[in-house]
Every structure is written in structure tokens, then in C-alpha cells.
Amino acid sequence: MGPQRQKIVLQAYNRLDKDKNGYIDINDIRGVYNAKNHPAVKMGKKTEEQILQEFLETFETAHAMRNNDAPNHIVTKEEFIEYYNNISASIDDDAYFNLMITNAWGLGDQGGVKQSWSNQTGATTRGQQTSNLFGRDSNQLAANAVQKTKMEMVSANANEEQLLENLRKRLAARGTRGIVSIGKKFKIADDNNSKTLDVNEFKKAMHDFRIGMNDRQVSAVYKVFDRDGSGEITYDEFLRTIRGEMNQARKNVAMKAYKIMDKDKSGLVDINDIRQTYNAKQHPDVQKGKKTEDEVLSEFLDTFEDHFADMKGHEDARDGKITKEEWVEYYNNVSMSIDRDDYFELMMNNAWNLDGSKVTKKGWGAEV
To answer: Cα(73)–Cα(258) distance, rounded to whole angstroms?
Structure first.
């Protein structure tokens, strides 16, 4: 999220953290939500505490999946922000995002609102008009958002290529964040944990990603990915079709950067190579004593392995050593959101000093 969105999300977090202990737990949300009217509670299937714990798990799911952790019903700022990073990726308009957060957490209510599952109990209700930080009527903003969504819907007569192009544009507009976001949605949509998606799971992922296509169109574009008619697609099959690969000119630039990084010319980039290029002493976590320099450098290497490791058959790729294949796969993702070859080359030169114009060693806070 950009700074403006992150600011209002943190406002919501601080409001939820009633006891100001730096995290949100069940005691905090008891003061915000009343679970007595939840259907499962009224039917005796669950306790109020179970419902509130499930509510907390919502904000932990994405973070827990990425880190292989089990939800502990304690929501940190990092988990809360990551949850809204995923939501933010599918909302283009800042004003509408602001409205959504403001209304969801009652940020505009002076006296505070306690919500139940069937209604709100307090000074305001969702049917009333409220103002957001932009000074515009919330009902008007909601109407504008609905109209915008209609305008972005794909034509009913669109053919397979047009549907695929729409999907490419939606992902490219979000850059590498779009790839990461849809990767997470694939994992969430994979209900049977098969590492593949059938057509119904695919529809679920596409619906969550808001690509402006109806169910019939999603089914049509699914067939583009499922070329062999097996009834399932893998995440890497999806990426290959939607993204393609870099052209040869860009691949040459990427490999030039790889050779620069491979200081010892071993054919792999590892922590010893990047120690000679990057100085981690200025990294905030190192300065605070939370992490060692090697831990920060290892996380830096992980960045280039993530996409490759998500592909079927490469689940064990994370070994702290970047192969040429992993490097190219990473820049295939980056390349997708950059239209011009000359800009791609400029970006790579600035990142990796391809022309040798700089002799500095880079640190996290500045060049040193």
C-alpha cells in the first residue's frame, strides 16, 4: 500500500488495540464486536469466543500461509497491514479504499460504535450518510465505485484473446505486486490443496481478484490455460500463459546483471557474493538488534527465489543460492509491467551498475 492507505489502516489498528499493548487479541475485539447474534452462536453450534477467534484468524491467514505458522489469535501490525495489502491490490481508487476502512472500523464516529453480526448498536448505522477524509458523501462514493466497476467489465462479446488480454492488463497494472497477490489468491482458492486449480477454484480466485469478467467469461479463459483439457491448471502454467518470457534483449540485460553479482564466477549467486555488493549494517533490523547482517542478506536472496519456488516441482528451491533459472524467472515477473525495453535496461543499470559508472558499495540506508 502507499503511505496514505497505510496511514488509515494503522488508524484502524490503533483503534482496535483498546489496551494499547501493541497487538490485537480477543479482549480488544470484545469491545468492538458483539457475537451474540451470530447465527452459529444462536443455534448453539459455536460459542461467542470461537466466533471472535475466527474473526481474528481472518487477519492472520495470509501471513501464516507465507510463514508456515498456525494462527495464534493475536494480530500484529505486520499481519494487519499484510491483510490490507492484499485487499488494497484490487482497489484502484484511494477515496473508495478510504471509505471502506472508515466505515468498517467506525473511524469517523466520535462516540465509538459497537457492532453485532446482525446490526450495529450505537449512534450510527450503515444506512446513514457519513463523511470521509476527502469530504465527499460516502453514498456518492459507493455509487461512483459501482459505476466504475460496470465500466471496467469486459464486453459480453469478447473472444478468448480479448479476455486473456484483459487479464494481462489487470495484472500488469499492478506490477510485481499483482503477481504476488494473485499467487496468494491461488493458494487460498486451492481448497483441496492439490497445487492445481479446477474451474470452480479458478473462478473463486478470479472473483477475488476483480478482473471484470462474468462466470461464463472466466470459464472461457480457463480453457486457454487448460490446453490439455485435464480439468486443472498449475500456478506456473497460469503464469507462463499470462506473462510469457522476456524478449532476448531483456534476457541479455538480466544475465549481464547476474554475471556481475556472481563475484566468484561459480555459476551461482550466494551470500558470499552479495556480501561484496551490499552492506547490511544500516538495515533497520540490524541496527535494532532484531536480525544479523547474514539474516538480512539471506532474506534479500529469498526475494529472487520466491516466484520460482512457487512453481510446481520447485517447492524445494529455497536454498539461499540463486541459479540463472531463478534469476531469469524473477525478472520475467518484473518485465511484465514494463512496456519499453530502454526503460527496462535503465532500471537494471540503476539497480546493478551495469555500465560500471559507480564504485560504491550499497547499504540499506544509503550508498557507502
So the answer is: 42
Give φ, ψ of 115 to 5 degrees. -105, 145
Q: How many residues can be counted in the chain?
A: 368
Say how many Å lie between the first and final Cα of the chain, rounded: 29
Looking at domain 3-152, its CATH superfamily turns out to be EF-hand (1.10.238.10)
DSSP state of 234: E
Domains 160-243 and 248-363 share a fold: yes
In the CATH scheme, what is the homologous superfamily, with its name and number, of domain 160-243? EF-hand (1.10.238.10)
Q: Which of 31-35, 285-289, 293-297 has the lowest mean pLDDT?
A: 31-35
If one looks up domain 248-363 in CATH, what number appears?
A: 1.10.238.10
Assigned C-alpha cell, 206 = 478470479
> Do residues 333 and 175 touch, judged by C-beta distance below 8 A?
no
User: pLDDT value at position 304?
Assistant: 84
pLDDT tens-digit map of 139-190: 454 445 444 444 455 677 788 888 888 887 777 666 555 666 677 777 788 8
Q: Answer left, alpha or beta for residue 213, where phi above 0 means left and psi between -120 and 50 means alpha.
A: beta
Indicate the domain borders of the chain.
3-152, 160-243, 248-363
Alpha helices in the chain (DSSP H): 3-16, 26-30, 39-42, 48-67, 77-88, 94-105, 138-152, 160-173, 175-189, 199-209, 215-225, 235-243, 248-261, 271-275, 284-287, 293-309, 324-335, 341-352
CA–CA distance, 226 with 203 (Å, rounded to integer): 14
What are 3-37's pLDDT values in tens digits? 888 899 999 898 888 888 888 888 888 867 777 87
**Pairwise CA distance, residues 253 & 341, whole Å:** 10
| Closest to 29 in 3D by CA, of 48, 10, 43, 45 | 48
Beta carbons of 241 and 225 less than 8 angstroms apart: yes
